[in-house]
Amino acid sequence: MDAVNQGEAPWTTIEAIYRRRLVELLAAHAIAASAEDVEHLTRAWWRLRPWPDTVAGLTRLKRRHVIAPLSNASFAGMVHLAKFAGLPWDCVITAENARRYKPIPTSIARGSHCSAWRRTA
After folding, report:
1. DSSP string, 44-101
2. Which one is predicted more confidently, 86 or 96?
3. In whole angstroms, how far apart are CA 40 and each of 35, 55, 79?
4. Are the C-beta atoms of residues 82 and 62 closer than 8 Å to each other?
5. Each residue of 15-56: pLDDT tens digit?
6. Could you tell me which of 113, 107, 115, 109 has the C-alpha nearest to residue 14?
7. How far is it, in rounded angstroms, from Cα 82 to Cα 62?
8. In what helix (H) or strand (E) does residue 23 lie, and over which residues does it extend?
């Protein structure tokens, strides 16, 4: 992520970064894994279960506030996570919007710009 933020590497999704590092770690430890296994492990973040009170808490907050996480994850990853975990987000703001990873100010500013609206209902 630092290489992307510093302009030393082109934009790439967090999954590509995780996949590359996972392949390096598997090779370093002489662990054999199929391409399917690598992909399954790379996307493990998409299948995280929320804490027991998370969905209820977000649902309660959503009555009065917009729920819009700002994440270094990919847009697809956050959508898959929301679907898997039943997270009631109104929208998702990711590093892909700014092509920079947090904590670079442009990623945070883009997120605040994207979510600078009020619920009308």
Report:
1. GGGGPPPPTTHHHHHHHHHTTS----EESS-HHHHHHHHHHHT---S--EEHHHHTS-
2. 86
3. 9, 25, 17
4. no
5. 999 999 999 999 999 999 999 999 999 999 999 999 999 999
6. 107
7. 14
8. helix 14-28
Task: State the Cα–Cα distance between residues 15 and 83, nearest whole angstrom.
Answer: 18
The one-letter amino acid code at 60 reads: R
Phi–psi pair at 70, nearest 5 degrees: -110, 115
Rounded to whole angstroms, the Cα distance separating 49 from 54 reads 10
Write b or e for each residue in 6-22: b if 16 or more Cβ atoms lie within 10 A of its Cβ, otherwise e.
eeeeeeebbbebbbeeb
Question: What is the percent of the chain with per-residue pLDDT over 90, rounded to a whole number?
Answer: 56
DSSP bridge pairs for 94:
71
Query: How many residues are present in the chain?
Result: 121
What is the rounded distance in angstroms from the CA atom of residue 36 to the CA atom of residue 90?
A: 32
End-to-end CA distance of the chain: 38
**Identity (one letter) of the amino acid at 76?**
A
pTM of the model as a whole: 0.78
